[in-house]
Amino acid sequence: MVALPHVAIAVLCGTTGGPATYGRRLVKALNSTGELRLSVLTDRPAWFAADANDHCEVVAVPMRGGIDRLRWQHHAIPKVLRALQPDVYHDTKNALPWRLRCRSVVTVHDLAYHTVPDSFGFASRLFLQRATHAAVRRADAIVVPSAATAQDLAHFYPSSASRTHVVLHGIDAHQPVATAQAEATAARLGLPNPYVLHVGTIQARKNVDLIIAAVRQLRSNGLPHRVLVVGRRGWLSERAFAEIERDETAHWLEHVSDDDLRVCYQNAAAFVSPSAYEGFGFAVADALAAGVPTVIANISSLPELCGEAAVRLSDLSSAAIAQALGALLGDEQRCRQLSQLGKARAAQFSWQACAEGHLRAYRSAMKTDVAKP
Questions:
Q1: What is the DSSP letter of 118?
Q2: Which of 221, 354, 358, 369 falls between 20 and 30 A from 147, CA-CA?
Q3: How far apart are CA 218 and CA 322, in angstroms?
Q4: Which CATH architecture is the domain 6-170+350-367 placed in?
């Protein structure tokens, strides 16, 4: 019997968000193919306990957060890899260890620290730029979640183009919550009614302040909607929180469970993402899957993700958001149309297809014999 290719995949889950979601879903999908022997290297082994079987082992690699990422990346991971001796090492979060004795694959989720550098703190921006530069230069294959990110990668790192694989993420189907349970959850969370939703880490490039200012303008014209903002405080979020705290226009929830988040989507009148940059856009994808009429920035990966299933902003301003939202919320037929289009669009993105794309990247990495710059 021919031995299955052995892939060690690192999934750093300490900070919730898109990369952690991607890593968890990808492991499950890869495991289901039966085409690999997997070793999952993670700081949250309990999250992968259900995936463990004869072809998938889970290896705990503790990480304390913050600067400890450097120890985790360049000392702890190489030590584990020396013991495992995999055919391929896949890092799912933009970086690679310095000392590698096997073929390597890296996922580059986005290049926001290049395209919108002012939305990052200096130390964070410097770390991400240097880590990505080193990883992209040394990787045998590079995975990106959108054609837009591939284009950015080729712009900033031209030598990466021949090794780059565009592999779209899957989108989880929305699981509706029963009406009585949804009403109880809404009451417990103090959700406004009606509301416009935004989900994601609150940081400068997400332009949460513009959403709140836009809805405040609409409220002054008689619209009853408020803004529900769900997400942790991130880099350079002062403008957003100045708007959140200004009056009752916005209601902020820092952390919610997955079940509660489903209710937040289900009850929303619309979803808005005026983000200045996204590599894929998981929160927008979840809105499409839930059938929430969606408004997006006409930038980076979002038009690629949504196709015709979302309203595209004319520019990134509160006036443009107010105009788009006002027209949408006043048009029930358009809302129903976008709801249907969103669900259909989301159904086109599967984790099975995502896993198959990664298998191609792994095979490519194992065949690589060209010297990298």
A1: G
A2: 369
A3: 6
A4: 3-Layer(aba) Sandwich (3.40)
pTM (two decimals): 0.92
Same fold yes or no, 6-170+350-367 and 179-346: yes
User: Mean pLDDT over all residues of the chain?
Assistant: 94
Domain 179-346 bears CATH identifier 3.40.50.2000:
yes
Q: What pLDDT does 82 receive?
A: 96
Model confidence at 10: pLDDT above 50: yes
> Is the pLDDT at 306 greater than 80, yes or no?
yes
Rounded to an integer, what distance in angstroms lies between the CA atom of residue 313 and that of residue 276? Answer: 11
Q: How far apart are CA 61 and CA 47, in angstroms?
A: 13
In one-letter notation, the amino acid at residue 254 is E
Candidates 342, 351, 171, 179; CA nearest to 271 is 342
Other C-beta atoms within 10 Å of 13: how many? 21
d(CA 351, CA 371): 32
Annotated domain spans of the chain:
6-170+350-367, 179-346
